[in-house]
Specification:
D-Maltodextrin-Binding Protein, domain 2
């Protein structure tokens, strides 16, 4: 039985210039203060470099803040796993970049959908993409790829993959996996692919677009057959409890303004300009969301 290899990086928690607070001792806030918990995971949150502040969930946060002028906002930066720990400990935080499930969650309340994503795919080098698609098809048959120990799969510690998670869990003891920890895990995985230390990761196509903008080096995105044509709804999640319920109520009430926010729409257009019918689906499944109308 094979187990994932964990690569641990030492890191220093640091404060951003937009009101971040140390995450080791998060104070319990009143109902008029919302604490965002974010992680360094472009293109969702971009905390440095030429695209700083232009992540899709950065734009979502700004739109919510504009729509709720009577609420004060703070931001704390921490790894994905630490965000989960804060919610488990009933610390009052909201994570702006969750996958909407439509089901009860044990630790968080979720808003209605905020936007949507195209499905995850396999990200690898152009050269290896040719080999993988010859062996496993295009779209790629992930269940077969995961069982092949010749190809190392890397992913950030704490990352969950929505509709794909049952497939990943089913074959967790097959193949060879590398779990990357640390604040820069997402970007580090791309460097590991280029260096040949892992062969692929799984993420949204927008990560490839971000990487091309920053590194000017092309990686390849391969759609996954098991979820081809699906769409993934995004949502904001807040810790369960009176505080979280109050914040979710306020955010849901403001969502029409968030969905219409010009800067947010411009940001979505930037990241999803190559996604077919993005705004048509945005109108149908996000603005006009009905829980009984699944998008897939």
């Amino acid at each position: 039985m094979k187990t994932p290899v964990v690569i641990t990086l030492s890191f220093i928690y640091w404060l951003t210039s937009f009101g971040a607070i140390p995450h080791e001792t998060l104070p319990q806030r009143d109902h008029n203060v919302l604490t965002w918990a974010v992680n360094k995971a472009p293109p969702f949150h971009v905390l440095s470099g030429p695209l700083r502040g232009e992540g899709m969930c950065d734009a979502l946060m700004h739109a919510v803040e504009s729509a709720l002028p009577l609420v004060s906002f703070e931001t704390v930066v921490m790894p994905q796993t630490r965000i989960g720990v804060q919610m488990e400990r009933a610390q009052n935080v909201c994570f702006p970049c969750m996958i909407y499930t439509g089901t009860e969650h044990e630790r968080v309340y979720m808003t209605r959908p905020t936007h949507w994503y195209p499905p995850h795919g396999v990200i690898t080098t152009p050269e290896l993409a040719e080999q993988l698609t010859r062996k496993f098809g295009n779209p790629i048959r992930l269940t077969e790829l995961l069982q092949n120990s010749h190809y190392r799969f890397g992913y950030p510690d704490g990352r969950r993959y929505g509709q794909l998670q049952p497939v990943l869990d089913e074959f967790a003891n097959d193949g060879y996996r590398v779990v990357r920890t640390g604040e820069h895990a997402t970007v580090a995985l791309l460097a590991m692919i280029r260096a040949g230390r892992i062969q692929y990761t799984i993420d949204y196509p927008q990560l490839v677009e971000y990487d091309q903008r920053i590194s000017q080096q092309a990686l390849t995105f391969i759609p996954i057959s098991e979820i081809e044509g699906h769409m993934i709804l995004g949502a904001i999640g807040c810790t369960k409890g009176d505080w979280g319920a109050h914040m979710i109520e306020q955010i849901n009430a403001a969502l029409p303004d968030v969905h219409d926010n010009a800067a947010f729409l411009e940001n979505l257009a930037m990241w999803f300009n190559s996604t077919q019918d993005y705004f048509e689906r945005y109108e149908r499944f996000v603005r006009d969301f009905k829980a009984s109308d699944p998008p897939n």
